Structures are given as C-alpha cells and as structure tokens.
Amino acid sequence: MNNNWTPSSWQAFPAVQQPQWPDNGALDTALKQIATFPPLVFAGEARSLQTALGQVASGNAFLLQAGDCAESFEEFSAVNIREKLRVILQMAVMLTYSMGVPVVKVGRIAGQFAKPRSNNTETINGVELPVFRGHMVNDPSAHAEARIPNPDRLVQAYHQAASTLNLVRAFTKGGFADLNRVHAWNQEFVAQSAEGKRYEDVASEIERALAFMRACGIDTETNTALHQVDVYTSHEALILGYEEALTRQDSLTGGWYDCSAHMLWIGERTRQLDGAHVEFLRGVGNPIGCKIGKTTDVDYVLSLCETLNPARIPGRLTLISRMGANDVEEALRPLLRAVRDAGHPVVWACDPMHGNTYSAPNGRKTRHLEDIVKEITGFVKAHRAENTWPGGIHIELTGENVTECLGGSEGLGNDDLDTRYETVCDPRLNGRQSIDLAFRVAELIRSNN
Ligand code: PEP
Ligand code: CO
Fold first, then answer.
1. Is the dihedral of CA 166, 172, 174, 177 positive or negative?
2. CA 331 to ligand 2 centroid distance, Å
3. CA-to-CA distance for 344 and 155, rounded, in angstroms?
4. How far apart (Å, rounded) are the C-alpha atoms in residues 47 and 45?
C-alpha cells in the first residue's frame, strides 16, 4: 500500500460486497448529486469523538455503541428515533453511575443503511432472489424486481440520515437528555419489569445526588453537562461510492473527513489489508473501527493497526471483537497481548451479537441474552488476564418492545419470536433486555475477578 491516498484511491483496490448497480450512469448521477450536498457532520465533532475515545483507550472511559443492525426506510419516525435514543441514554446513565467513568455514546444511527451479506442470493418460498443489502441499496420485499439495486436509494439514505441526525441533535441538546428527566426515560413496558424497577432505584439515587449537589451550593442549573449529552453517529462504511461522495476537506486542518458520520467501521467481511475498504478508511481523519472475528491472527491485527493508525493516535482505532461466547477468551488474549506489547493505543470493544446468531426452529434468526452476557464475560476475563482495559460494548438494540432476541427477565422463548419480530436484518435486544444488559455489564466491569 502506498501513501498516495485520495478520497478515490480505493477504486484501484478490490472492493468486496459492492452492489451490482444495473445502470452506471444513474449511479454516477446519484453520487455526483450527493457530492454537492452539505456534510452531515463537522470534522471538529469527529475530532471531539476521537478525543473521547482516547480516554477509552487509556482506560478512563467506556464506549457504548448501539442501535439497529440496519436502519429502515419504512420504520422512520420521530417515535422510533426517540425510543432508540431513550434506551441508549438509560443504558449510559446506568453504566456511568455504576462504573464511575464517563460513557462515550455512539449510535448505530443516521446512516446504518447498508449490509454485507454472506451469500449473494437467498431462497424465499422456494424462489431464489438476489439478497437484500440494506435500504440504501434495494428493497427487502420478496420479488426479484424489488431486489434490483437502485441508486436513488443512496440519495434517500442521505436525506433520512440528515433528518435523523437533526432529531438526535434536538433531543440531546434540547432538554430530552436532561439528567433531571432520568425517571421520565423509563418507558411504561420497561418500568413494570424487574430491571425497570432496578433502574428506578438508581434513578432515585441520581436525583438525590443532584439534590445534594444543589444543597451544597453547586449550581446545577447552568452546568450544561447535566442538561445535554453528546451522542455521536456511526455506521459500517460499506458502499464506498457513497462514503467518497461525502468525504470533504476540513477547512481548519486541511485533513480529509468522511462527513457521513462521526465514526465509521469496517466489517468482518471487508477488512482485507489489501482491499478497498481499508484503503479508503486509512485516509480519513474520523475515528474508525474494525470488526475482528475469531479467526483473526496476531500478524493481521498488528498490520491493521500499522495501516489504519501509523501515527498511534489514541482513540483513532477501535477494534471490535465478535468472536462468539465460546471462543472469545482464548481467541482474544493473544491479540490483546500483541497489541499491548506493540504499544498501539486502541479501544477494545466487544460485539457480543454477531458471533452468537443462530436460527430458531421456526427459521427466525435470533440470539440469546445469556450468550450475549457470556461473550462479554469472556471478553472482560481476557482483558483482566492481559491487564488491558475492556473498553466498551457494541450492541444491536431498539427501544421498542420487540421479540427478536431470546431470554431476559420476561423469559422470551422460541414461541414468542413471531409476536413482534420487526428487524430488517439481525435480531435486536428490546428495551428491557438492553437495560438488563447494562446492569450486568456494569457488574462485570466493576468486579475484579
Ligand atoms: C453488523 O455489525 O451488522 C455486521 C454485519 O457485523 P460483522 O461485520 O461483524 O459481521
Ligand atoms: Co447485524
């Protein structure tokens, strides 16, 4: 790999997982249009996130990255965005309160519209169809025409990302995220559950702490840290033409930033060292992530760190392990050791979702909350053994009361999956399961064994 990076230099490298657009002229028109649109985020915000992630890399903060597997053009509403944000805020406040460290909040939101797939086709009711690749590319309806990649969807994805981000900014800065509302975040269906009650108890303690601060003469009214939060955006940088079209030169520093989101990550299927995705992301100034599965070896990880973060900037690179509950401890330890010994300041995050997915008897893709907890347990144990910091979690969730993942205090089982299975891709934790998980993660990180 040479150093002559440009926003389009990825085009000279093999790019896997790209759609077969039927009309290159139409694709070109869509991308040229997007290139004229305003950036969705500002480079300075991406730098703030990198600074915050630098604190995670040094063991002084924790990363919560969470949201849909795939955002949907159909499930697009204020309520949907608000509920997702609400559960992320609830998880973050529980983690912060129990662990006593800042929680860096990054949504899989406002741009998570493209999916890598293991197969190019899928068979539905005996008919073989091109696979669904996310709403940014095609439509999931089960007929061949719907599955044809349509570049107008790239433009629609930009607009949906823009209005989602607008609402996220409004909610997080305009009062919804005020810590005085910590009780109000608890949704009806969550409040009735055991973990909802546990949440209420902690929320009451936080309220007492705020009252205590006021009684001591601390001005809680004007301190913005109590009334606003930073929620950053992220998605998998998969469709490289789209990412290139939103890559802009920062007027302050002269550096290039992918202004489609604050943070971008490379998936398990697109992380080839000599591939287009690594080439593209190595040149943008945003903080970036890379998923690593259980077959990842030491040489690969060290080369990846050198390629993506040669200047060794803390917070620049997040390695997101997704190894499966049974394999994570053993597979992760040599990587932690090697990266630590090489002096690379990475954030280590655990994606306990993608290594624990299987099909239920009715054919629904699902995951069990206990496998998710088990993978995080193995992740934390590996870090304890290597004296490194288990920096965060990467979760697929929704604030809604869906029935996509099994387990949790309501004991969701196989027979419940059909009740409310709404995801357009992988199964997500619902609001209760997410709060439950936050408590259990906080306990794992806090305990010293
Ligand atoms: C995802 O995050 O939805 C995903 C596809 O993950 P991975 O690349 O780890 O399989
Ligand atoms: Co997924």
1. positive
2. 21
3. 38
4. 5
CA distance 411 to 121: 34
Q: What is the mean pLDDT of residues 349-361?
A: 97
CB 395 within 8 A of CB 437: yes
Q: For residues 102 and 62, is the Cβ–Cβ distance under 8 A?
A: yes
Question: Which of 65, 135, 235, 269 most suits a substitution to test ligand 1, by most atoms within 8 Å of the C-beta?
Answer: 269
Residue given tokens 């993942």 in the structure block: 405
- Pocket-forming residues, ligand 1, beta carbon under 6 Å: 69, 116, 267-269, 291, 322, 354, 426
DSSP state of 129: E
User: Distance from CA of residue 286 to its chain's centroid?
Assistant: 15
Ligand 2 ion: Cβ-proximal residues, 5 Å cutoff: 69, 426
Hey, whose CA ends up nearest to atom 8 of ligand 1? 267
pLDDT of residue 192: 85
Cβ atoms of 172 and 231 within 8 Å: the answer is yes
Task: Starting from the CA of residue 352, give the closest ligand.
Answer: 1
Q: Which ligand is nearest to the CA of 365?
A: 2
Say how many C-beta atoms besides its own lie within 10 A of residue 216's C-beta: 8
Rounded Cα distance, 304 and 288, in Å: 12
Q: Given a cut of 80, is residue 216 above it in pLDDT?
A: yes
Residue type, 11: Q
Q: Which sequence spans correspond to the domains of the chain? A: 27-177+228-447
Confirm whether pTM is higher than 0.70. yes
User: Taking the domain 27-177+228-447, which CATH number applies?
Assistant: 3.20.20.70
Does residue 1 have a pLDDT over 60?
no
Q: Are 340 and 311 within 8 A, CB to CB?
A: no
Residue with tokens 């003469």: 217
CA 350 to chain centre: 11
